[in-house]
Structure to design on (148 residues):
């Protein structure tokens, strides 16, 4: 008789795990989407395509980019800043992202911390970045970037 409550508890735990599996897959799918955006940005940068690199960013006046020159708001202003600072392939060099942490904050947000480095003829540079990804209209986009 004492086996029934234990068996019932075990069955309930198994059912719970089975129901939780789709959520775990959705989370891993979301993280893979975020990582894919970073990979696509790296590839675009390394072929000298600033517009392609910007595809990972939110096309909005509310996009926030924080760099050595301070805060820049808006997609167009951020692209103009990239063009001004990295206007040719010699200054762009070859980009590498090394992820330190990719953390899901909620169903709509990811927080990413990493290192960036540029190997280039104009002198190698690098630093760290913090990105906030938000799911907007079914797509993951960077809404805030702090790179130093």
């Amino acid at each position: 008789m004492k086996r029934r409550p234990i068996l019932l508890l075990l069955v309930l735990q198994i059912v719970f795990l089975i129901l939780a599996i789709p959520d775990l897959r959705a989370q891993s799918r979301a993280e893979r989407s975020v990582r894919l955006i970073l990979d696509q940005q790296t590839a675009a940068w390394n072929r000298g395509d600033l517009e392609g690199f910007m595809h990972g960013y939110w096309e909005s006046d509310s996009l926030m980019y924080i760099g050595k020159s301070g805060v820049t708001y808006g997609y167009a202003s951020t692209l103009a800043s990239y063009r001004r600072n990295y206007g040719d392939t010699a200054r762009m060099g070859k980009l590498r992202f090394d992820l330190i942490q990719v953390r899901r904050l909620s169903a709509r947000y990811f927080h990413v911390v990493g290192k960036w480095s540029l190997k280039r003829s104009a002198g190698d540079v690098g630093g760290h970045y913090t990105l906030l990804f938000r799911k907007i209209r079914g797509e993951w986009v960077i809404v805030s970037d702090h790179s130093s």
